[in-house]
Amino acid sequence: MTEKQIRVLLIDDHTLFRKGLAELLEQRGEITVSGVTGNPEEAIRLLRETQPDVVITDLNMLPVGGLALLRRIRAEDWRGPVLVLTVSDDEEDLANAMRAGAQGYLLKDMEPDDVVDAVQRAERGETVVAPTMTMKLVRLLQGGAAANEKGDALKQLTAREKEILDYLAQGLSNKAIARALDISHDTVKLHVRHILSKLNMTSRVEAAVFAIEQKSAKRDN
Questions:
Q1: CATH code at 130?
Q2: Model confidence, pTM
Q3: What per-residue string of b and e applies to 17-53 under the rule 16 or more CB within 10 Å gives b?
Q4: What's residue 205's pLDDT?
Q5: Is the preceding omega at residue 131 within 30 degrees of 0, hence cis?
Q6: Domain termination site, one of 103, 119, 139
Q7: Is residue 73 packed enough to be buried (19+ CB in 10 Å), middle (13-18) or exposed (0-12)?
């Protein structure tokens, strides 16, 4: 039986880099590149037409930056994973990307096999970051001075949704959550969609950050 192909849309305004990355990914039998562009407007058109499983985008692009493009992708109501692939190891860029809806943050100096592995993990619903960014993500998750101001939002969630939110904070994929709760994968996806809608958030990463901020705020009180 043939494995499911992971369809990837690449967005980067450096022609040589995006062509090289496309060739790298295509060499892996389980990944196919559904579109390649360096133009944000073209990227939205390709997103609609090709319906990829994973989007990989640069952070610093002209004339529209990667953060603005991320927000446009989320405004399209496309719920697949978006991975930022950039040269920036700045903690603020990481924070802004995650808040804008990225499910992963990768660096362009990563080993090729690590990039491929990140694509596969993201497609399974996992949050992925470059190894050198892990501690920065931990600091980001442990922050949250405004967490107390958001606490009332949790009251909108059902007991099951709060349970799933807690698993999101632990970094579990939808499939892992389904196994833990002995419910279907589709049921978990529906609950996650409801959680994001009630909390007015665009990604599971943002929801996970929020959940950890809430736990941190309770410990400090």
A1: 3.40.50.2300
A2: 0.66
A3: bbeebbeebeeeeebebbbbbbebeebbebbeeeebb
A4: 73
A5: no
A6: 139
A7: buried
For residue 127, what pLDDT is reported?
Answer: 83
Q: Which of 18-22, 67-71, 113-117, 170-174 has the weakest average pLDDT? A: 170-174
CA 146 to chain centre: 22
Q: Of 139, 168, 195, which residue is a domain's last?
A: 139
Q: How far is CA 52 from CA 61, 149, 168, in A?
A: 21, 36, 23
Residue 21 lies in a domain: yes
Rounded CA-CA distance 185/3 in Å is: 19
Count of domains in the chain?
2
**Per the structure block, which two tokens stand in for 129?**
């970051």
Distance of CA 116 to the CA centre of its chain: 15
Q: In this predicted model, what pLDDT tens digit does every residue of 102-157 receive, in sequence order?
A: 889 999 998 888 899 899 988 988 888 888 887 777 676 655 444 444 556 778 89
Cα of first residue to Cα of last residue in the chain, in angstroms, is 54
For residue 1, pLDDT beyond 50? no
Cβ atoms < 10 Å from Cβ of 163 = 14
Asked whether residue 7 carries a pLDDT value surpassing 90, the answer given is yes
CB count within 10 Å of CB 15 equals 10
